[in-house]
Design a protein that fits this description.
The protein contains 1 helix and 7 strands. With 107 residues, the protein is of the alpha+beta class.
Length: 107
């Protein structure tokens, strides 16, 4: 692929769009007709839908692998950047500290 494309997930598909023309470059059906979350990382597209994770080639749209994340249900798979992850870690740490303080105070 000569130019970087815009990658989006919609209705059970991952779609590559040419950001200059808006033309669709390729579309890949994943599973169902649900919300698809996507992230481009290390030259690959990772897409989550219906509780499964897919790795997709950004040039062709070919599914390279899939993991059904057995036993985890059909929840939404969310992707974030390093800042999002750090913020989530801070919130979790604050909640754990508050729960520990509440538990200690209730003894």
């Amino acid at each position: 692929m000569k130019n970087a494309s815009l990658i989006t997930g919609i209705s059970g598909h991952v779609v590559a769009i040419d950001p200059t023309t808006g033309s669709e470059l390729w579309r890949t059906k994943l599973k169902g007709s649900d919300i698809v979350t996507t992230v481009l990382q290390d030259g690959r597209i990772y897409a989550g839908t219906k509780g499964e994770l897919f790795c997709v080639d950004p040039s062709s749209g070919a599914v390279l692998w899939r993991n059904n994340l057995k036993g985890l249900g059909l929840g939404l798979i969310a992707f974030g950047n390093d800042q999002d992850i750090a913020a989530a870690d801070r919130v979790i740490a604050q909640r754990r500290a508050a729960a520990a303080a509440a538990g200690a105070g209730g003894s």
